Amino acid sequence: MKGAHAYRTWFSLFWLGGVCGSLNLTGGCAESPAERITFEVRARSEGPPSLTQGEATLTLTRAELTVSGIYLCASSTASIDLCAEARGEMLPAVVVDALNPGPIRIGEGEGFEGRRGGQGDRVMRSAQLSYGVQWLLTAARPALAPGAHASLHLEGRLETPTTSQALDWRLDIAPSAAGRSTGAVTFAPAVLSRETVLTLVLSPSAWFAQIDIASLAEGDEDDIPLEPDSSTYSALVQALTSSALPRFEFHSHPPTSAGHR
Predict the structure, then answer these.
(1) Domains in the chain, number
(2) What is the radius of gyration, based on Cα positions, of the chain?
(3) Distance of alpha carbon 195 from alpha carbon 134, whole angstroms
(4) CA 25 to chain centre
(5) Which bin fits 21, alpha (ψ -120 to 50), beta or left (φ > 0)?
(6) Would residue 36 count as lying in a domain?
(7) pLDDT per residue as tens digits for the range 115-144
(8) What percent of the chain has pLDDT over 70?
(9) How far apart are CA 98 and CA 63, in angstroms?
């Protein structure tokens, strides 16, 4: 990890540097430092880009999700209280095409080489991520991360037997005062290596599972508005931070040259 990043949230600052005083974390401050490595991060979409409820069909033509922090944790529930068990992260903001079946490369993470079994194993079991909005230690309120324009940008069309309306929505999903943007994403125990590929699996249609899409067509406007205080806005935020979190998949591929890609 490359020292202090100006855009780290309070969660990342505390979690990766607040207890040990350095980034040489290996599952406990008393252990010898593990080897620092980089690993590839990808993303892909799963499920259809459309959702039908009764006679209403919503088809997404654009679903861009900004990911500005992925934090990998040793515990089964990612938490700032488990700083000394951090395993890796990807910090820069990147816009992900959540409709692309991919997988597509979205960036590079940094972490520490893992190992399984025995005392002081270096295994990951959960993660948290942020969506383009940060809350710095020195800031009074959340703000967009450098390079981010919105947490989520959706475009599409809602069709019913009597209407056809477009939507063009932008949402900002801010972390709490504790620096958390999402609940914990859990997965089967995994370890990092130079051959690791982490893939985020996104399901845009699942973001609308708790929304009555037919009710969105009740107005007579050509475009469907989205207000920050609406139940639709709240349901989308709830989905991305709790009920429809990205799924994390870990795979390996051979290094291309002398252990490096």
Answers:
(1) 1
(2) 20
(3) 30
(4) 22
(5) left
(6) yes
(7) 776 655 678 888 888 888 776 667 677 777
(8) 72
(9) 5
